[in-house]
């Protein structure tokens, strides 16, 4: 019998355990649990992996606890520019969007690019126009406003500095969200969504929307969703690197993710983490920071929700 499994993340970063209140930790875990539950339910009903990862990511996009959708950070101009990607491991079809403003759930727009266009990646005005054509839900700027994100931005606005949402201000960690899944037909999928970096230059692109960098799925190997210092994940082609090590060197999923996150990305100065899954329902939730919001569940009875190093 084919196993089913799902894993998700809400960002990796520098987390100060003593500054995380029990109440706040519970809030984070509740959202992770809800995303896990809804995504896994799709798989239980013999739905496909692509629908499952999309479902889980929407839950996290709709929470202002994470830097995606509703909780997206501010650009240097005080706006929100979001990006997202989704990929089907069976067909290797992929859809991605970037420089998106006002779209309530960027992951739905990425899915539409994959399913309803001849393209892989749409950005800026073209992506927004496509969302309008499809009558996707839009939200006003105040929907995306978050006081904590605003204060983060205020501290570094009018400077050349920018920061990952999980660095510098260590007690205000929120992050990119993502999910990988294996369905009952043995197919894999990955989805990733983010608001990017606080005070980033308008027009900056991270790894989340780039197939092979922050998001990748291939039934021959694995599905991967990344979170961390996007510029480095792009340079390291991190998500594909994991897949390539499995396909070309015969590494296991755990060996490949360890090699990439604990060695290769660190060697070029990057930090962060990822969640990954293979067709045998093996899961890896690898990170080189103090913690990563993460959760997983399998039909083998495994269920795990965590923030800090175990």
UniProtKB/TrEMBL annotation:
Pfam families: Asparaginase_2. It comes from the Bacteria. This is Isoaspartyl peptidase/L-asparaginase.
């Amino acid at each position: 019998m084919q196993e089913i499994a799902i894993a998700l993340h809400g960002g990796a970063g520098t987390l100060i355990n003593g500054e995380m209140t029990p109440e706040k930790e519970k809030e984070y875990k509740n959202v992770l649990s809800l995303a896990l539950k809804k995504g896994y339910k799709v798989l239980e009903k013999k739905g496909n992996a692509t629908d499952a990862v999309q479902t889980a990511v929407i839950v996290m996009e709709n929470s202002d606890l994470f830097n995606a959708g509703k909780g997206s950070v501010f650009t240097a101009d005080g706006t929100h520019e979001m990006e997202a990607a989704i990929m089907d491991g069976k067909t290797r079809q992929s859809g991605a969007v970037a420089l998106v403003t006002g779209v309530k759930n960027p992951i739905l727009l990425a899915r539409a690019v994959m399913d309803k266009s001849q393209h892989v990646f749409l950005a800026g005005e073209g992506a927004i126009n496509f969302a309008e054509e499809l009558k996707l839900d839009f939200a006003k700027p105040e929907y995306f406003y978050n006081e904590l994100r605003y204060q983060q931005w205020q501290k570094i606005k009018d400077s050349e500095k920018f920061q990952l949402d999980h660095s510098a201000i260590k007690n205000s960690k929120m992050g990119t969200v993502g999910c990988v899944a294996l369905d009952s037909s043995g197919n894999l999928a990955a989805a990733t969504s983010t608001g990017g970096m606080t005070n980033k230059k308008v027009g900056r692109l991270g790894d989340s929307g780039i197939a092979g960098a922050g998001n990748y799925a291939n039934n021959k190997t694995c599905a991967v969703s990344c979170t961390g210092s996007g510029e480095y994940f792009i340079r390291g082609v991190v998500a594909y690197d994991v897949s390539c090590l499995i396909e070309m060197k015969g590494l296991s999923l755990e060996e490949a993710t360890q090699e990439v996150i604990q060695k290769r990305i660190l060697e070029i100065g990057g930090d962060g983490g990822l969640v990954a899954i293979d067709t045998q329902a093996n899961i890896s939730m690898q990170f080189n920071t103090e913690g990563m919001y993460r959760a997983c569940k399998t039909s083998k009875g495994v269920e795990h929700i965590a923030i800090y190093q175990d």
